[in-house]
Structure prediction request, 166 residues.
Amino acid sequence: MFSSFLKTLPQISIFHNPSSPASVRALAMLRSALSAPYPPDKEDAPPLQFNLEIVERAPPTPDQIKTIASYLHPKGSSSETPQYSAFLSAHPSAPGLSDQPQTAAAMSDLVTRHPEAFKWPLVVDWNGGRASVGDVDGVKTILEGLRQRRDGEVKDDVDRPTGWFS
Prediction:
């Protein structure tokens, strides 16, 4: 009866750098999904509903980096330790293979000192446990997941209490 109170809007964050063409495209795509029919080829479809947080020219915190790395490498994957190289661009200021950060704090510090070493944009669906690093197609995948949830194609993973009324 009151299960609608349990639903919250998905929280999407974009760590955005306006000098990155991919980041500009990703931000435009996210804003369009909020204000125009989604998917765009279906005129009668409603826009998606989510909270969009835009973090401009700032890296994620070390705790956020740890969480995002877990989204990129889910439990049961072959690598037990997070691979922070997924966050690094091919820019000359990015460290070589032997000098890459081994901790989330070191990764955050590197990006603070050398923003061009980071793969922009970083888009995170905090509720869905998904992330896209430097990839506009990954943003499309996140938006498609939100559409599927909106359209009832995927069941919400809401922790509902069990008991008399469930």
In short: The chain has a mean pLDDT of 87. The radius of gyration is 18 Å. The chain is about 30% helix and 10% strand. Residues 21-35 form the longest helix (15 residues).
